[in-house]
């Protein structure tokens, strides 16, 4: 099976209007490998044949979109970072505040924004807050709004929090309405859409790992502009920000960066 660079370029150009996803912003080697592995497993040999099938088969298109946008999440994923957030970051952030505005960017099926809300409700009950949760994939947003999860979503969740904030149903664990009310889910393309501003806290974790360096820098610049002074950016465990001074951020702990006052 021969795939020249040209054919990949043809595909990303053809895919862009349909999906709104500009694959030029992603590292070519990794993205091309992901696309070809999906095509091979579904028995498509050429990009044009595959594009035709994506246009004709909504189920295939949804599966492919999900494959590209890599929705892997869990409640309280990376336990030590959530401990730092609970014991160090939030206590400093809420000094002198009664209200917090948070954003979970690339929220997948909702585990991260719900984890943020549960942390604040459980350990900082005097604070009012709202969470904006955005993702490019409308299917995972539907799952997030439904708020029903399986046992394996909770491998990092303290059992007492699971019992307090979820109800066991025949479909799985249902998040309680008291948590759901704190969160607004919206579709958003991080690379092309305008951002809201005035956030005290912004989590974007394990989202940018496939982006080009130029796309990452553009995104982190926009994130910084969206934060209030003193606001915190929370990144994933493989994502270190180099050249933070140039962005106006300083490291306050591993994977936590503060917008300078």
List the SSEs and their pairings:
Blueprint: H1 5-19, H2 28-41, H3 47-56, H4 58-69, H5 79-93, E1 99-105, H6 111-123, E2 128-135, H7 138-146, E3 148-149, H8 159-165, E4 166-169, E5 172-175, H9 177-180, E6 183-187, E7 199-204, H10 213-226, E8 227-235, H11 244-247, E9 249-253, E10 256-259
Parallel strand pairs: 1-2, 1-7, 2-6, 7-8
Antiparallel strand pairs: 3-5, 4-5, 8-10, 9-10
Helix pairs in contact: 1-3, 3-4
Average residue pLDDT: 90
Cα-based radius of gyration, to the nearest Å: 19 Å
Gross geometry: globular
Number of strands: 10
Residue runs with pLDDT of under 50 for 5 or more positions: none
Amino-to-carboxy terminus distance: 55 Å
What does the largest sheet look like?
A: 7 strands, mixed
Order of helices and strands: HHHHHEHEHEHEEHEEHEHEE
* Percentage beta strand: 15-25%
Helix content: 40-55%
Strand order of the largest sheet: 6-2-1-7-8-10-9
Structural class: alpha/beta
Number of helices: 11
Report on this structure:
By secondary structure, the chain is of the alpha/beta class. Helix content is 45%, strand content 21%. The protein has eleven helices and ten strands. The strands form two sheets. The chain has a seven-stranded mixed β-sheet with strand order 6-2-1-7-8-10-9. The chain has a three-stranded antiparallel β-sheet with strand order 3-5-4. The chain is globular. The mean pLDDT is 90.
